[in-house]
Amino acid sequence: MRDATSADEAREVPRPGPKNALTDVAGLRVGNAQDMRVRTGVTVVIPDVRVLAAVDVRGGAPGTINTDALGPGGLIDTLHAVVLAGGSAFGLAAATALMAPLARDGRGFRDWGPTVPLVAGAILFDLLNGGEKEGIGPELYGRLALEAYAAAGPEVPLGKVGAGTGAIAGPLEGGLGTASVFDPATGVTIAALVAVNALGGTTFPGEAAFLAGHLAFPGELEPVPPPRAPSGPRFETKRGLGQAQLGRNTTIGVVATDALVDRDGLLRLAAQAQSGLAQAIRPVHTLFDGDTIVALSTRTVRPPERPDLLIRLGALVADCTARAVMRGVQAAVRLGEIPAWRERAAEVRGEPRAAAPN
Length: 358
Description:
The protein has about 350 residues and is α+β, with helices and mostly antiparallel strands. The protein has a single domain, classed as L-amino peptidase D-ALA esterase/amidase (4-Layer Sandwich), CATH 3.60.70.12. It is about 25% helix and about 20% strand. A hairpin with a 2-residue loop joins strand 7 and strand 8 (about 170-175). The chain starts with a helix and ends in a 9-residue tail after the last helix. The model has no long low-confidence stretch (mean pLDDT about 90).
């Protein structure tokens, strides 16, 4: 009897999706474009099916477009694209630039006469990360948005791509991260995509071990020594906490599921995704962050009726978001003066320090 019970429990253990990416939710594509000279980029999420949409915004410094109507009581409950961009306010131009090709391709709301695409977006601040910023403006982000749209497909690279190109995560390089999970107990797939540009750190202070490392699936993170001591009240942030440094932040992302949930349920999942950021980043949701999560559901899978359904899915979406954060930081490489996670990991392991890029 014990063996049968163990087998049943094993069948219900969640596992990563085939690509361990946002696109494991069928009907979604992701595209990235970046300018490595400027150290910035744009990521787009394109639904090929109708999606239910919601948003959750935390922190005191959000930069968003067309998100207010996605909140509780808002009129809009679907989207035809989500845009994540660097460039601070300049990056908002990526969302408007996407309107023309979406309308051309017949992707939009058609009850108002002409096809009107519904595009929501969020931006992060990467204007002080080095790179050649002279002449930077909305035109750059419009061009990158069009390139990302043309490149949208099933593969989602990690690290210094798209909106994660210029990201900095606390004292280390940030980047674009993604993760997914399939839950055999409900038949539901959940996935997350984040551009990690947080004020707070993602590892224990001075260590390579991730704060949320216990949530990773086997083989998902490179092995590193555990923290040498409890962190207590200590935490890490971006270096040099002058006013300019304090304003360089925000983690933005998209979570998605195929679960048949209503608008209130999807809003709850968006909020739970923010809890995933809180597991992976410390401090988070500060006055100087504008953490924004857009949630999408294709509503193609009807999970079994169970009283703990939203609790279970909420825990999975939080964990998935935390895993995406860690995968984005782990994959990031050094672009300038900010060290990458792999450098810290090598130092903790006692390996020779690699030479910084010119």
